[in-house]
Specification:
Blueprint: H1 2-15, E1 28-33, E2 39-45, E3 47-51, E4 54-66, E5 69-81, E6 86-96, E7 102-111, E8 116-127, E9 130-140, E10 145-156, E11 160-164, E12 168-171, E13 176-187, E14 190-202, E15 207-221, E16 224-234, E17 239-243, E18 247-250
Antiparallel strand pairs: 1-2, 2-4, 3-4, 4-5, 5-6, 6-7, 7-8, 8-9, 9-10, 10-11, 10-12, 11-13, 12-13, 13-14, 14-15, 15-16, 16-17, 16-18
């Protein structure tokens, strides 16, 4: 046991400025601090093993100390790369913020220095009563800014579903989200098709309040279709402003 600990401690000293190994490799904890000696993050595992310059962790539990609150991370497995200051997490990775938001994926890269996380796997982000799913993502560790790379689906309160084949960029600090490529919106009032869609949230009510559609816009309401280059949809009022040589087509019932 002493031999194992003597190997682990100097290796961790190369990885972070301050590190802690508690009791034994079956109860392993290490931490990172900023230049003011304030703890920024902590990673723990039920066991740790050194293999080829890496530290392999089981049943990973991590904490990130953000100004906005505590971020908790859980995963079944973790790999620490000492020379890159990164951790790779896999199998049932869950990140939870202090406001009820969470992210789920099966594989996650965590850059501790820049406090960024990313994955090429399926990802689900739930925040402010909205659920976002897609393939691949890059986020801040506080989950306030995110890019979902493709095949996006957002389900928003009360009955709105937005999909896109391209990316979604969402900024919860500014209460804005931008969908790209083959965007399709469905709610109880109708449908919108467009190339790009920007939606605006009401943070307090946690609802979409306005949508700006751009590029090859098609809008269906009942048995009527409108076509334009842009459309601005006021969700609360249920009104749509069409821009760019709009055209309206009304079809008989049943057609």
């Amino acid at each position: 046991m002493k031999r194992i600990l003597s190997l682990l401690i100097p290796m961790m000293a190369l990885f972070i400025r301050t590190s802690v190994c508690e009791e034994s490799v079956n109860n392993f904890v290490f931490s990172g601090y900023d230049e003011h000696n304030k703890k920024k993050w902590e990673v723990a595992g039920s066991s740790a093993e050194v293999k080829g310059g890496r530290i392999i962790l089981d049943k990973v539990r991590a904490k990130i100390y953000e100004d906005s609150g505590l971020i908790n991370i859980r995963a079944q497995k973790g790999i620490v790369e000492q020379d890159k200051s990164k951790i790779y997490l896999r199998d049932n990775v869950v990140i939870r913020d202090s406001h009820g938001g969470f992210l789920y994926t099966d594989f996650l890269n965590w850059d501790q220095k820049n406090q960024r996380i990313w994955t090429d796997d399926y990802v689900k982000l739930v925040k402010d009563n909205n659920q976002i799913q897609g393939k691949g993502g890059e986020l801040d560790t506080d989950l306030k800014q995110a890019v979902i790379k493709k095949d996006v689906k957002l389900e928003a309160v009360p009955q709105t579903i937005i999909t896109s084949s391209g990316s979604l960029e969402v900024d919860y600090n500014k209460n804005i989200a931008v969908f790209k490529d083959n965007v399709h919106v469905v709610d109880r009032r109708g449908e919108i098709y467009c190339d790009k869609l920007t939606i605006y949230f009401d943070h307090e009510r946690k609802k979409i309040i306005r949508a700006h559609a751009q590029g090859n816009v098609k809008l269906r309401r009942g048995n009527s279709w409108s076509f334009s280059s842009e459309a601005i949809y006021d969700v609360k009022e249920g009104k749509v402003l069409l821009l760019g040589r709009p055209k309206l087509e009304v079809y008989p019932e049943g057609k």
